[in-house]
Design goal:
50 strands, Jelly Rolls, five-stranded mixed beta sheet, disordered N terminus, mainly beta
């Protein structure tokens, strides 16, 4: 778990000025785009690269919501086996994702690893002939060794013999457990895999799951743990008979006391069958020890379900409660997109309009706190929320949410335990005067900016999350501000919340195109790649005259005053020169054509297709790219020159087979001439490779052409050739 300070305090938002870090930009890597991924070959591969200046493409997956500086490779398994892919030796905190599929927007995730504060490694079984796409990105939430999320990459791949999967790898082959007390259920998830339609257990990325099934012999309280397993486990319990249609009962990634093992506590019903999954966090694998105990039922809180929420009254409220025995309801939202599953509910009608501070605190319980409007689980509208409050609790386990309440409006309040944690907590509510709403709180009121270097100020205290507003960077913030800016030319733009203040707030930044909240397309986003503390920074290429919508929010509902916004833009565009060798041997088609004054914007992906004229064949590309692929795709990160090289196609003489001594005596030697059409050919023979005699009195003008050398009947040997004439 990462630790950080959060409070309502001052911060600066910078779309980086020349005096701030990040104003310089590097050339975009050649394999920044999925279409220009670099092929790898063999069973033992080691290569180096970097993701400095890399970007995120529209529609590109980001499994952990921490990337945005990805580069790509592709590898086709030469044989079936167990592959290990690693970024060990890279200079920054990497994320590593493996996919199958050939279209960026329709990839199937096979394996993933972040490994928290270091480099990444995945291992899994592969099938011969299957192509795997490899994505290396940076983790913008890390401080290892800096939080720049970019640097030098070392990528290593090795293929070993196939690892036999466990017998209970697939849901259909789950093993049966019986009894009320099982102290030594053993197994392994080495060689296991995820299935299509399988849920992400405890909302984590695993892909190494194994399955058991257990029918409760009596009603009661179930405690299930993976204590003494040899790896970082994830544990989940479901009902249902299909892997793609399971109903969650309880789940846990890390036991709040022991750590890397997993523990779930839930009530079960006699004769109901429960499905148990054990997975490895981010692909971890090893030996499993599962302990099951069925005891007395856990008391269920009176306000466990939304329909039974407890009414709170007044403007100053304090109560103590517990979520032990609480459950997750069907259709209940995942509060703050963070897995919980142990929620309890209240309802409160604001007695007057004012600024509300709502806190759920316990030094030992990691709480989730969220506030909604709406009258049913299926129509809730998010108002505010928070998981980590480092201002109230130094360990961050308490939660505090801020929002403006409107007199007479009913608010639904939920407290959940992160990762299924349970315990008692204090719930407190207080009201103050209304916080003024910032002028650029809503998308329709975004502030227009112009120029290549500019600065503006604001605050996100009192700001809100609009209905239909995207979750910037995949996080709930809830206090977003909006600007719009139009690029003056093709080039590179850098936006950042970096400044020289020691305690910088934890911000979210997202940049979009589109003219309404419901039609936005993300261009770039970031949490804290700002080069220090918890600031955000994005750098991306742009074409001329593109309007961008810029949102800045506080992670986890944070608010600050004196917000300063700056922009730095550098013009850049690149030319592409095509050549034909030899001249006139073919042509080159280019798509798309340059649209920035005869040049391309940085990061443009261009496809070139070589077409030979009759009598020539394409051989290869040379120049800025060396390749035999046709078409070839390249990324414009500099001025580039390519030559399409062609080779004259020679005629081909083929002897008919079989030909016997008798057929030669009676019919002569038979040959077939083939070659490019619309040319004339001269046919000649020789007995010594020096003196050549024409066989035909006239040139051959139509192919294929069959001819016979009747004079060859008495020759010991003879040579033939065909020459293309001008």
């Amino acid at each position: 778990m990462r630790t950080r300070r959060r409070a309502r305090e001052t911060f600066r938002l910078a779309l980086v000025s020349l005096l701030l870090p990040g104003a310089c930009w590097a050339a975009i890597p050649d394999n920044d785009a999925f279409a220009t991924r670099i092929p790898l070959y063999g069973t033992n591969v080691s290569t180096t690269s970097n993701n400095i200046g890399a970007t995120k493409e529209a529609g590109e997956p980001d499994p952990n919501f921490t990337g945005g500086k990805s580069v790509w490779w592709t590898w086709t398994a030469p044989a079936s086996g167990y592959v290990t892919i690693s970024t060990a030796g890279s200079s920054f905190d990497t994320t590593l994702a493996i996919y199958t599929g050939s279209v960026l927007t329709n990839l199937n995730l096979v394996a993933f690893n972040n490994n928290e504060l270091s480099t990444s490694e995945v291992d899994f079984n592969v099938t011969a002939g299957t192509t795997y796409q490899i994505q290396v990105d940076g983790d913008d939430t890390s401080n290892y060794p800096t939080n720049n999320a970019e640097g030098n990459i070392v990528l290593q791949l090795s293929l070993a013999p196939l690892q036999p999967p466990p017998s209970n790898d697939n849901f259909a082959n789950r093993l049966t457990l019986t009894g009320s007390h099982l102290s030594n259920v053993t197994g392994s998830n080495v060689g296991a895999s995820g299935e299509p339609g399988e849920p992400f257990h405890a909302d984590t990325l695993g892909f190494k799951s194994v399955w058991w099934t257990w029918t409760a012999p009596a009603s009661g309280g179930l405690t299930l743990t993976t204590k003494n397993s040899s790896f970082d486990t994830v544990l989940a319990v479901y009902t249902g008979n299909s892997v793609s249609n399971l109903t969650l009962v309880a789940a846990n990634d890390e036991d709040p006391i022991v750590g890397l093992i997993s523990t779930v506590n839930c009530n079960v019903i006699s004769n109901v069958t429960y499905q148990i999954a054990v997975d490895g966090f981010e692909g971890a694998s090893g030996n499993i020890r599962l302990v099951l105990n069925l005891g007395t039922a856990f008391p269920v809180p009176a306000n466990d379900n939304f329909t039974n929420r407890i009414r709170l009254t007044g403007s100053i409220i304090a109560t103590n409660w517990s979520n032990v025995g609480a459950t997750y309801e069907p259709n209940e939202p995942m509060h703050l997109v963070t897995f919980g599953g142990k929620s309890v509910w209240w309802t409160w009608t604001a007695p007057s309009s004012g600024a509300v501070t709502l806190t759920a605190s316990n030094a030992a319980l990691d709480t989730l706190l969220a506030v909604y409007t709406g009258t049913a689980l299926t129509n809730l509208i998010f108002v505010a929320g928070n998981e980590y409050d480092f201002f109230t609790n130094t360990n961050g386990l308490g939660s505090t949410a801020f929002f403006n309440a409107t007199s007479g409006v009913n608010y639904q309040i939920v407290v959940d335990g992160a990762d299924g944690n349970t315990g008692s907590f204090d719930l407190r509510l207080s009201m103050d005067v209304l916080d003024p709403i910032p002028p650029d709180d809503n998308f329709t009121n975004r502030i227009g900016l112009a120029g290549s270097n500019l600065s503006t100020a604001g605050t996100n205290i009192g700001a809100t999350l609009e209905v239909g507003e995207p979750l910037h960077r995949g996080y709930y913030g809830g206090h977003s501000l909006w600007w719009k800016w139009t690029s003056p030319n093709a080039g590179i733009v850098t936006m950042s919340t970096t400044n020289n203040v020691t305690d910088v707030p934890d911000t979210l930044m997202a940049v979009y195109t589109g003219s309404s909240l419901t039609s936005l397309t993300e261009v770039a986003s970031d949490n804290n790649s700002g080069g220090g503390n918890w600031a955000s920074r994005v750098t991306f290429p742009t074409k001329s005259n593109v309007t961008y919508q810029v949102a800045v929010d506080g992670v986890d509902g944070d608010e600050w005053i004196n917000l300063r916004l700056n922009i730095h833009f550098s013009a850049a565009s690149y030319g592409l020169t095509n050549m034909i060798s030899p001249a006139g041997a073919g042509s080159v088609g280019v798509a798309p054509l340059p649209d920035q004054g005869g040049k391309y914007a940085p990061g443009s992906v261009v496809t070139l297709t070589a077409t030979p004229v009759n009598g020539y064949a394409f051989t290869n590309w040379t120049g800025s790219v060396a390749s035999t692929n046709n078409p070839v795709t390249l990324l414009m990160n500099a001025n580039k020159t390519l030559s399409a090289n062609f080779l004259s196609v020679p005629p081909l003489l083929t002897a008919y087979e079989p030909q016997s001594y008798q057929s030669l005596r009676s019919n002569g030697f038979r040959l077939l001439l083939t070659g490019p059409t619309n040319f004339s050919y001269s046919l000649e023979r020789s007995s010594n490779f020096t003196l050549w005699t024409a066989i035909q009195t006239s040139l051959v003008t139509s192919v294929p052409f069959e001819f016979r050398d009747s004079s060859a009947t008495n020759a010991a040997f003879r040579f033939y050739r065909a020459r293309r004439t001008p």
